[in-house]
Write a structure and sequence with these properties.
The chain is of the alpha/beta class. The chain contains seven helices and seven strands, in the order βαβαβαββαβααβα.
Length: 257
C-alpha cells in the first residue's frame, strides 16, 4: 500500500492564543493585537519556535505604547506551520484567534498583524466584524495566475490596512504586495503601503522605524490616536504614491527620545 503523506495539521492539534505577550496586557483590554508569525508553503510540522519568538519584540513594543488604552497582544500559535494550498490552514487559525479574542475580551477592536505567510492570513481573515485593522509585514502573496481566482480584497472594506515591505526581500516579492495593494485600494480607500529601502524579509535593518510605524498605525486605528504625517499622507494619496511611500530612516525617533 502506498504511503500517503500528511499535509494538513493533525486533527488532535488546536490553535492557541496562550498568555499575553506582556503582563501589562493582562486583565481588561481596550483593544487587541493578534500577531501571526511566518510559516511555510506546505507543512504539517509544529509551528516554529523561532518565528513565534520573532514576533515578541514588536508585540511588547505595542503593549508599551498602548498601555494607557489597555492594549493586549497575543502571538497566535498555529496548529501547524504550513499554509497548505487551498486548505489555507493559517487563515483558519487566524479566524479562530479572532473569535477567541472576542470570547476573552469582549466587544473590543482587533488588529491582525502578520509577517510573511502570517501577513497573508491576516489579510484573508479580516472579514470578521471585530477586525478594525490589518498590518501586513512582508506579505507572502501568490503570483498572478489567470487560471486561479485573484487574492480576495473585499473582506478589507471598512478596515484600515497597512502593508510594509522591504525592497530587497528575497523571500516574498515586494512587487506582488504592491499589485495586491493596488487592488485593495480600489475596494477600500483606507489602504496604504510603505517600502523599506534596501531591507530584507525580516525587516531588521530598520526595525526601530518599522516598530514606530506599526505603533502609530495600530494605536491610530484601534484608539483614534493622532498618527504621524507620513501615514496620513500615505492613506490620502492616490496610487501609486500612497502605495510606494518610503519609510524614512529615523521615523518616530522624536517619540522614542
Amino acid at each position: 500500500m502506498a504511503h500517503i503523506a500528511l499535509v494538513g495539521p493533525p486533527e488532535s492539534r488546536r490553535p492557541r492564543l496562550g498568555r499575553p505577550v506582556s503582563s501589562r496586557s493582562a486583565g481588561v483590554a481596550g483593544g487587541v493585537v493578534l500577531l501571526l508569525p511566518d510559516g511555510e508553503p506546505v507543512s504539517a510540522r509544529r509551528p516554529s519556535a523561532r518565528t513565534h519568538a520573532a514576533m515578541l519584540p514588536l508585540g511588547r513594543a505595542l503593549v508599551r505604547a498602548g498601555r494607557s488604552e489597555g492594549l493586549a497582544a497575543h502571538v497566535v500559535r498555529y496548529r501547524a506551520r504550513g499554509w497548505n494550498g487551498t486548505d489555507a490552514d493559517l487563515v483558519t487559525d487566524a479566524s479562530w484567534a479572532v473569535e477567541e479574542a472576542v470570547r476573552r475580551y469582549g466587544d473590543v477592536p482587533v488588529c491582525l498583524l502578520g509577517h510573511g505567510m502570517g501577513a497573508r492570513a491576516a489579510l484573508r481573515a479580516a472579514g470578521h466584524p471585530a477586525v478594525a485593522a490589518v498590518l501586513a509585514l512582508a506579505p507572502w502573496l501568490p503570483e498572478d495566475d489567470v487560471a486561479a481566482e485573484p487574492e480576495p480584497v473585499r473582506q478589507l472594506v471598512g478596515r484600515r490596512v497597512l502593508l510594509v515591505h522591504g525592497t530587497n526581500d528575497a523571500r516574498t516579492d515586494p512587487e506582488l504586495s504592491f499589485r495586491f495593494a493596488e487592488r485593495a485600494k480600489k475596494a477600500n480607500r483606507e489602504t496604504c503601503r510603505f517600502e523599506v529601502h534596501s531591507d530584507g524579509h525580516a525587516l531588521r535593518q530598520y526595525a526601530a522605524e518599522v516598530r514606530a510605524l506599526a505603533g502609530d498605525f495600530v494605536l491610530g486605528a484601534l484608539f483614534s490616536r493622532p498618527v504621524a504625517r507620513p501615514l496620513t499622507d500615505a492613506m490620502a494619496a492616490p496610487p501609486p504614491l500612497g502605495l510606494r511611500m518610503p519609510l524614512a530612516a529615523g521615523f518616530g525617533g522624536s517619540r522614542r527620545r
